[in-house]
Write a structure and sequence with these properties.
By secondary structure, the chain is an alpha+beta fold. It has one domain. It is built from three helices and three strands, in the order ββααβα. Strands 2-1-3 form a three-stranded antiparallel sheet. It is globular.
């Protein structure tokens, strides 16, 4: 069961219950949209990466059913849907 609860929170403001992003090759720090903008780090979605071919600063912090961070290219539809159901802010 995906746990997008209290442990899934922004490393800078501790906000939880929202979409978070992470560095492409790491699982931390997790960053919310507001803090990403404040620190001038642009979160992106997979489609933008595919369309532009540019490596993003951050990728969606998608969890799998065992609460492990999913490799963005291999996340299942249900994992994307669970992450996508979270509010951005």
């Amino acid at each position: 069961m995906r746990n997008y609860g209290k442990g899934y929170s922004c490393a800078f403001c501790n906000k939880s219950g929202v979409k978070l992003w992470r560095p492409p090759m790491d699982v931390s720090p997790l960053t919310c949209a507001s803090c990403s903008e404040q620190f001038q780090v642009v979160p992106t979605d997979e489609q933008l990466v595919v369309d532009s071919g540019v490596e993003p600063n951050l990728v969606p912090a998608v969890l799998d059913e065992d609460d492990n961070f999913e490799e963005v290219n291999f996340a299942s539809v249900s994992d994307w849907e669970a992450w996508g159901s979270l509010p951005t802010r």
